[in-house]
């Protein structure tokens, strides 16, 4: 008995540092980014994943995106077509968020400046156009009045759905490129704010990277940008505290909050 | 006489019955009249119908057109525009919000004076912080349930020096730091152009 216990203990002691080392490797924000040749290169189609929550989270996410795509300042204007494929993640039963995402896509995709039109003439051969989007539903991590006891079960269901949706698009690669031009791969970027679904989806992405599933970690996929709610002035939210050392970028929207030296906190101006 | 709207929103997730009651109380309705409001529109939330109905019955007739609805799936944009007014026919009114960031942002973008009344009964009350921070910078009026008439007065002051949102960048040295969402996404994507 004692022998088995010692062996188990030794094994744990030996493998734990290796696992932790692996974790630090994949969780450091300085992990490798893929080299990209142009924003709309057909060989490197980009994939952006956006997580919407209910009520305030959705409102803030869309306010932030709307501000970015309609910005009068060309340096700050987000060109929606730079992201060939967009995946919107919503919680089950949240038809309002789905409606908002659809409205945004219909508004943002046709926005094009003179500069884009000019660029279109020159770079037509390498421009893959506006691409498309999809809205994916995942089960709720926790219903509003659900008892805490069953929360792990529903969270696990949500985690499994998140893993599935992250794996929905993967490609074989050739020299670091998609094997087929225009083929959608893992998300390049995950953009989220604080709903519970976001925490679970980010966890799912970390698990995939931990095991380097289909080379997602080697290829620098699924970089994560977390934007703390604008309503958080003095204290971080629970999701924020959980994710502050896990995401690649952790942005807060009030300068006084950035003074809290937590994880990767940074203040780059108000974003909504 | 031109109409003038007061639009009240209590939010979708946690209905704020006290706010519904407060805006239908006699002192507040009198204050509305004193500031020449003609219409009061209330979004009372999922389970707020009963509270709304009984408060309207108690208020009786008072010279203000009162209307209410549960929730609008199409969003609050329509009501915000109504409160913003259209010049001669409809004067610019006011928005009273439960301090949800969505409605505050909508009102700030449309530059309608807004009174923010946080629900102090909510457990995790970061909305008070938002209301305080925004009131300090004179973007909104921080209202209290007990004295909404005073807040209505303050809103008239706010109307005269309404600030625009998003805040304009001040100074060149700040622009280097403020790259916006696009700058951050570009950094993460590693675009070379």
From TrEMBL, chain A:
One of its GO terms (molecular function) is N-acetylglucosaminyldiphosphodolichol N-acetylglucosaminyltransferase activity. InterPro entries: Oligosacch_biosynth_Alg14. It is found in: Endoplasmic reticulum membrane; Nucleus membrane. It is a single-pass membrane protein. Keywords: Endoplasmic reticulum, Membrane, Transmembrane, Transmembrane helix. It holds the Pfam family Alg14. It comes from the Eukaryota. Signal peptide: none annotated. Involved in protein N-glycosylation. Essential for the second step of the dolichol-linked oligosaccharide pathway. Anchors the catalytic subunit ALG13 to the ER. This is UDP-N-acetylglucosamine transferase subunit ALG14. The gene is ALG14.
From TrEMBL, chain B:
Coiled coil: none annotated. The keyword Transferase applies. SUPFAM superfamilies: UDP-Glycosyltransferase/glycogen phosphorylase (SSF53756). Belongs to the glycosyltransferase 28 family. Keywords: Endoplasmic reticulum, Glycosyltransferase, Transferase. It catalyses: an N-acetyl-alpha-D-glucosaminyl-diphospho-di-trans,poly-cis-dolichol + UDP-N-acetyl-alpha-D-glucosamine = an N,N'-diacetylchitobiosyl-diphospho-di-trans,poly-cis-dolichol + UDP + H(+). Residues 6-168 form the Glycosyl transferase family 28 C-terminal domain. One of its GO terms (molecular function) is N-acetylglucosaminyldiphosphodolichol N-acetylglucosaminyltransferase activity. InterPro entries: Glyco_trans_28_C, UDP-GlcNAc_transferase. Its EC number is 2.4.1.141. It is found in: Endoplasmic reticulum. The keyword RNA-binding does not apply. Involved in protein N-glycosylation. Essential for the second step of the dolichol-linked oligosaccharide pathway. GO terms for biological process: dolichol-linked oligosaccharide biosynthetic process. Transmembrane segments: none annotated. This is UDP-N-acetylglucosamine transferase subunit ALG13. GO terms for cellular component: UDP-N-acetylglucosamine transferase complex.
């Amino acid at each position: 008995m004692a022998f088995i216990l010692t062996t188990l203990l030794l094994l744990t002691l030996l493998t734990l540092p290796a696992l932790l080392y692996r974790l630090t490797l994949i969780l450091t924000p300085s992990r490798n980014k893929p080299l990209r040749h142009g924003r709309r290169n057909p060989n490197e189609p980009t994939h952006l994943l956006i997580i919407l929550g209910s009520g305030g989270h959705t409102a803030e996410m869309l306010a932030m995106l709307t501000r970015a795509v309609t910005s009068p300042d060309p340096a700050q204007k987000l060109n929606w077509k730079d992201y060939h494929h967009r995946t919107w993640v919503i919680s089950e039963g949240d038809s309002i968020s789905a409606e908002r995402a659809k409205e945004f896509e219909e508004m943002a995709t046709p926005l094009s400046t003179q500069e884009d039109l000019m660029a279109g003439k020159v770079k037509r051969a390498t421009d893959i156009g506006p691409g498309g989007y999809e809205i994916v539903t995942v089960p709720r991590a926790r219903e509003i009045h659900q008892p805490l006891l069953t929360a792990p079960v529903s969270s696990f269901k949500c985690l499994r759905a998140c893993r599935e949706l992250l794996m929905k698009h993967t490609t074989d690669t050739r020299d670091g490129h998609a094997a087929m031009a225009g083929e959608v791969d893992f998300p390049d970027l995950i953009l989220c704010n604080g709903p519970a679904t976001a925490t679970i989806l980010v966890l799912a992405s970390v698990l995939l990277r931990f095991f380097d599933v289909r080379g997602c970690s080697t290829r620098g996929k699924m970089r994560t940008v977390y934007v703390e709610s604008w309503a958080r002035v003095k204290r971080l939210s629970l999701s924020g505290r959980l994710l502050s050392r896990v995401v690649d970028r952790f942005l807060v929207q009030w300068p006084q909050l950035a003074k809290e030296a937590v994880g990767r906190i940074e203040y780059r101006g108000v974003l909504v | 006489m031109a109409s003038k709207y007061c639009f009240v929103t209590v939010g979708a997730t946690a209905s704020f019955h006290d706010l519904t009651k407060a805006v239908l109380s006699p002192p507040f309705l009198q204050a509305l009249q004193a500031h020449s409001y003609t219409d009061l529109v209330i979004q009372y939330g999922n389970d707020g119908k009963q509270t709304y109905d009984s408060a309207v019955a108690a208020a009786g007739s008072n010279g203000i057109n009162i209307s209410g609805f549960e929730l609008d799936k199409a969003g609050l944009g329509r009501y915000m525009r109504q409160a913003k007014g259209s010049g001669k026919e409809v004067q610019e009114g006011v928005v009273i919000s439960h301090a949800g960031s969505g409605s505050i942002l909508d009102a700030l973008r449309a530059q309608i004076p807004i009174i923010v009344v946080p629900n102090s009964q909510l457990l995790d009350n970061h909305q008070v912080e938002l209301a305080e921070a925004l009131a300090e910078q004179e973007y909104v009026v921080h209202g209290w349930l007990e004295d909404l008439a005073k807040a209505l007065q303050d809103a008239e002051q706010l109307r005269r020096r309404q600030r625009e949102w998003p805040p304009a960048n001040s100074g060149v040295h700040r622009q280097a730091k403020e790259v916006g969402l696009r700058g951050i996404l570009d950094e993460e994507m590693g675009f070379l152009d």
